[in-house]
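Sequence and structure are no longer studied apart. As an example, we show below a sequence and the tokens encoding its fold:
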Amino acid sequence: MMIGDTHSHPGVNWFEPAKEFEAEVASRIHAAGRKMTSDVIVAAGVARLFLDGAREFLRAERRS
């Protein structure tokens, strides 16, 4: 079975093998000391949230 097959058969529950495959790939990538796109997106989102909050705090402080 190819990973793409998990999305092409309505009514067939191949979702679990796809999730297991995804977990195996992520595990191997992390074991090699690398990051997945999802790791980077989460980190970037947190950084953006922090920076947006800091900017708003500074704007509010300037107004008061």
